[in-house]
Amino acid sequence: MNSDNNRSIHSNVSSAISPTVNQQVSSLDLPVDLYTAEQARELDSVAINQYQLPGFTLMRRAGRVVFDTIVTTYPGLKKITVVCGTGNNGGDGFVVATLARQYGIAVEIVQVGDGKKCSGDALQARQLAEQDGIAIVPFAAEMNKDVLRQGIVVDALLGTGLSGAVKGDYLAAIEWINASGLPVVACDVPSGICSDTGAVLGSNAVYAEYTISFIGLKQGLLTGAAPDYTGKLVFADLAIPAEVYTSVAANAQRLELSQLAAYLPARTRTSHKGKSGHVLIAGGDSGMAGAVALASEAATRVGAGLTSCATRPEHVSAIVSRCPEVMASGVISGQEIEPLLAKANVIVVGPGLGQGSWGEQLLQQSGKLLVPLVVDADALNLLAAGRVINQPYRDNWILTPHPGEAARLLACSVADVQQDRFAAITELQRRYGGAVILKGAGSLVLGNDGEKIAVCPYGNPGMASGGMGDVLSGVLGALLAQGLSVSDAARLGACLHSSAADLAAVQGERGMVASDLMPYLRSLVNL
Q: Is 11 part of any domain?
């Protein structure tokens, strides 16, 4: 995926489909490149040392962006409480406070930590706030709750410098902010969130209504626990020269569906079903017909020329009734699936597969073939258990674990996976090959084509319902059948799936089901 321009303006999408769909796939007004905290500091350093932009100038710009966001978002605001730490994040907060005073808004600064430890640019910002007569109140664990009875709070506590669990007064301040119930605008990162991983460092983090990330968008803000805390994410490059971004390689990328749609091959006037591939969905043990039915229908809606399904005999009629375009066959053993496998050029194995001998046989036969595979659900669990496939590494498959399945594949805990999802997907791809989609809020994608880890910015809590993963498997199978590489299919498939869910969620997240995605998948692949 091309990411040469950190602030690229993406091309307009087709207007041939509904405005709702067009709006969904348009740019999210965030940069493509994502950075670790260390890389963001390198960007700062380059801007300061090579382009003679004083650090205090950047701090003032950051404070200005935060303040402008506040007055635009909260018109008629009467009071701002700025909660500052002792580092540069606190310095940004001091600038916000000074601007608020000059604007005529009542403002109070709450200093967490020893204010005497402020130094450099942060000290200069604090001194200017003091010169403007702004009250700076030392934080205490039993802080008067009246301080946070009105207005909004600016979180300028910790920023990207956080490395260990938040403790002491800083943790108490986070809990105090959250208990206020007031809207919070976070400077750069909600305090308590690791900007590299998205994990909560300690027992709590600030729940922000807006988070404004400066210079380099922090990769952790888009995945893990972070989406629960960031609120609306805003980015400000602080007008540093574009050349600065060429000096520091980003660690990850944010996916854009409008770019990825170009991966789909155009269909000629003489196209026929054989040119669009043949997907076989293998799974659906007793009581789990719905899984293969959903995967099969998704494959048809995303453009597979032919879709077959190998499942328990008792499920065939239900699957054909739901989607008559699917060629469903009943199999009772691995031997019976062999002729079906021979006709397919892509196999999806796992939806409703189960972990019994029947599922093992289907996985074993599927794994013998050289065609691309999508491995999901119980097929991943069988893989993790070391059953069926003795050397589970290949270049032409896509693995789609959720955190629990990823933990089993890595022989660690779910907490370990969620503590650093970037590290987890890197190890999964190294260990198993191919392309990996680590599902969850801010799904991560890592292929075998040398591209950076990618973060899918689409999706919503309505996807927390049964069958969503089965739909994703069918989507991926259809993309592979149409000729995409495993890496391109993984990136595009993750975005198609979650974008369709966002469109379905317009009618409400609660009660959304996997089959609600089908009409939107068809629209999205016809952009």
A: no
- Residue 52's CB is within 10 A of a number of other CB atoms, namely 8
State whether 280 and 248 are in the same domain: no
- Give 409's contacts (C-beta < 8 A, 6+ positions apart): 380, 383, 384, 399, 401, 428, 431, 432
Tallying the residues shown for the chain, one arrives at 527
User: Domain end: 254, 289, 318, which one?
Assistant: 254
Query: Which one-letter amino acid corresponds to residue 220?
Result: G
Does residue 106 carry a pLDDT above 60?
Answer: yes
> Which domain, by its residues, includes 335?
276-524
Q: Is the pTM of this model over 0.70?
A: yes
Tell me the pLDDT tens digit for each residue of 440-495.
999 999 999 999 999 999 999 999 999 999 999 999 999 999 999 999 999 999 99
Please tell me the total count of domains within the chain: 2
Tokens in use for 54?
């004083």
Report yes or no: 1 and 253 within 8 Å, Cβ to Cβ. Answer: yes
DSSP secondary structure, 215-253, as one string: SS-BGGGGSTTTHHHH-EEEEE-TT--GGGGGTS--SEE
Nearest Cα to Cα of residue 74 among 49, 100, 51: 100
How far apart CA 392 and CA 160 sit, in angstroms, is 38
CATH number at residue 206: 3.40.50.10260
The Cα 371–Cα 365 span in angstroms is 12
- Quote helix, strand, coil % in the chain, to nearest 5: 45, 15, 40
Same domain for 317 and 445, yes or no, is: yes
The tens digit of pLDDT for each residue in 174-189 reads 999 999 999 999 999 9
Whether 30 and 7 have beta carbons less than 8 Å apart is answered as no
Q: Are strands 210-214 and 278-282 parallel, antiparallel or unpaired?
A: unpaired
Tell whether 367 is covered by a domain: yes
> Residues with Cβ < 8 Å from 201, sequence gap 6 or more?
162, 163, 164, 165, 166, 192, 193, 194
